[in-house]
Structure formats: structure tokens, C-alpha cells
Amino acid sequence: xxxxxxxxxxxxxxxxxxxxxLSVATLIALSEYGSSTVDALARGNMRERVEVALSVExxxxxxxxxxxxxxxAARVTxxxxxxxxxxxxxxxxxxxEEVDVDLAFVVGADAKAVTGFLDxxxxxxxVLEQAVSRARRGIADARADMQRAATxxxxxxxxxxxxxxVVNRLAEDVESGKSDDTTIAFARRLDAExxxxxxxxxxxPGLRLADTGRxxxxxxxxxxxxxxxxxVAVLTWDDHTSAYDVRRNLRPYLVGAGVAFSGLIFWIxxxxxxxxxxxxxxxxxxxxxxxxxxxxxxxxxxxxxxxxLADVIRARSTASVMLLDVDDFKQVNDTMGHATGDxxxxxxxxxxxxxxxxxxxxxxxxxxxxxxxxxxxAAPAARPLAERLRKQVAEASSQATREGSCCTISIGxxxxxGGESLEQWISRAxxxxxxxxxxxxxxxxxxNSGGASPDDTASPA
Length: 461
Description:
Elements: H1 3-67, H2 71-77, H3 84-99, E1 103-107, E2 113-118, E3 121-122, H4 125-134, H5 136-144, E4 154-158, E5 161-169, E6 183-189, H6 192-202, E7 208-209, E8 221-225, E9 231-236, H7 242-250, H8 258-288, H9 298-315, E10 319-326, H10 329-336, H11 338-355, E11 361-366, E12 369-375, H12 379-400, E13 409-415, H13 422-438, E14 444-447
Parallel strand pairs: 13-14
Antiparallel strand pairs: 1-2, 1-6, 2-3, 4-5, 5-6, 7-9, 8-9, 10-12, 10-13, 11-12
């Protein structure tokens, strides 16, 4: 073979080699770019999961505080007990067994602590003073908030430990009409055990408190700050994504399986997006649904009811709201057990599902209270529904309890009056419910437009 033939073959081979080389280099570059992009998306997705998980925990604690921020609730749970020994014993049981909070304290109108408990025991004055000082800005926000919803959560540092804190004003007592700037605060300690429980509940691998001596990369950390911007604690998690495995396993086969690799990248994108959406739906459902009864919780009710009320006002239509309460529910829990009480609450929710219409909005309002918004129904038209619910619950409850006891409900109904807010509307129904309780329970009471002279007639079972 002559020199000319070598040059001729080389002139064909070199362009082909250049094209193959450029193709392989392009595939490798695209693979590295795609893998790096997936890495960034996965890290961002992990950070969103941590933020959503903390948001759900904050909302749960805030909703829990709302239930115990009423003077009536304080009286029922014994926190208003004048005897200090009995009050401390009842608060210890309440905080550790029912509420599951590590730190709780009450601040009077003079911005000084009235009482406080840490880990079920009365808090040391120095610790209590430190907690009140750290929460001072949150207390001011709660006093400025005239609504009953709990103020937004914040993080505080007490004695070198991070706490998730929610603060709320002690709500007005319907019986006495008392109202002042007394505030109540609940806090949960964010220690290693609590963070591990959050990681297991929301399936976040390796979620933990960052060590003070080590500095993980910013993409793998989430600082928890107080309202002044100071960092209280830092969360971190494992840096391990599906893109890392794909790049490690498929890199040796890029030349021979470029198309398959590209298809796999697109498939990973699809799986990541679908998994993210499924987790987002699950977390949103956990934040909006009452876990015991499976119906809306208080927060979701106010969102949906606000939209329904806007539709009613726009259409110049009418609507009614019903507030239901299980009679002597604390006695049911004390005598028959909490499992029986849970069955009674689930039974009421089941009858609400069965009897309400598609456009109605119903929810567990808190504790043993339920609320129903009935668009298009005036109060007289809503009364037959209330009476059916009252009688059905009374009949079905005897089968739900092992003792065969009959549990009853009291109902207050209020028809919407133009110009009033949703809270004012529900407050009139609450007044009617209060009158039903004092009239002997197991009855329905309707409030008129002024809320002063209700129709107190009822059909007790």
C-alpha cells in the first residue's frame, strides 16, 4: 500500500473519527449537564419537603393552641382551678398526655409571666423569664391580632435549646364577657428525638440538627430563625439523590447507549415531578383534614367558607350556619374512655357526610364542636336538617358505645345577615348553641338577625 493510499484512507477516517469523537463528547457533556441539573432539582425538592413538613407541624401546633385558647376550655381542663396543687396536677396531665408540648406559659396583661410549665413541671423563674423575653415580639403580635386564629409560628432559643413556639390571645369568655391582653403560648422542643420523628413521619432521609462544629453546604441546610432574624437552629439532611446513582451506573455505557441514557434522564425527571406532586398533595391533605374524623379541619373550613360566603353575597342569596356540640363530652371521655369519645366524634362526622349536600361546607371546628355552612338555606329551612342530625346521632350513639348509653348533641343555627363577617356570623350561631346548652341540651336553637331574641323552641328526644 502506497503513501497515497494511506493519505486517502486517513482523509476518510479523520472526519469520521472527529464526528464520532464530537458525538461522544456531546453525549458526555449532555449527560453531565443533565445529571447536574437533576442533582440541583433533587436538592431543591428535598429542601421544599423539609419546609413543607415544618409548615405542617407549625400548623398542627397552632390549631392545637386555638382549641385551648378559650377561657371556657381553660375552665374545663382545670387550668383555671384556683387551688394551686390541683391546678399543677391537672396542667401536668394536660401538657404531657393530651397536648404533648414541652413548654407552656401564660403572660398577663402586664407582660409578665403568670405561670409556666417545662416538661410537665413548673418552670424555673429564670427559664420562664427567658422564654417570655424571647417570645415578647410574638406576644405583641398576638395582642395586635383581633381574630381568634393563632398567630404565625416562630422559633425561640430557651436555655440553649430551640423551640417551635405559637402564641395566641386568651379568647373572650362568652359567659362572663371578660377580655384582656392575657396570652397563652405552647412550644415544642426541636431536639434530636423530635427532628428524627419528623424525618420518619414525612420520609425525609437523614434529617437532623446540624453539628455546631461542622458547616454543611447551604443547599443541604435550612436555618430556623426567630422574628429578629437570629438563627436558633440549623437543619441538615443527607446529600444523596437518584441522579448520583444514574451518573455512576450509566457513565461506562454512554457511548453505546446514548439514546437509552437520554430516555432514562427524561424518565427520572418524570418520576421526580410525579413524586413531588404526590408528596405535595399528601402534605396538603394532612394540613387540611382532621385526622380523626376525615373531614375538614378548622383552618380549611375558614378558607372554603370564605369563598362560599363571597358567592352568597355576590348572588344576593341567603345562607345559614350551624354549630354542633356533643353534650357532656368530657363526661363521655371520663366514664367511657377516649376510644368511645373518638367513635362518637366519627359518628357525628359520618352523619354530616350523609345528610349534607354537595355544596355544603362542614368541618370539625375544634374538640367536640362541628360547624356546617348551608348556602341557599334560610334558618327555618335549615332546622329540619338539624333535627334529623340530632335524632340520628342520639339513636346511633347507643350502638357506638359499649355501655349502650345515648349521647346527644346541641345545635345553634344563625342565618346570614348582610354586612357581618364570617366570624361574627359564626359567633351568633355560637350564642344560639350556648343557649341550647343552658336550656337543657339535646335541642336546636335558632338565632334571629339581631341575635337577641332567638327561637328557643326545640324537640328534645
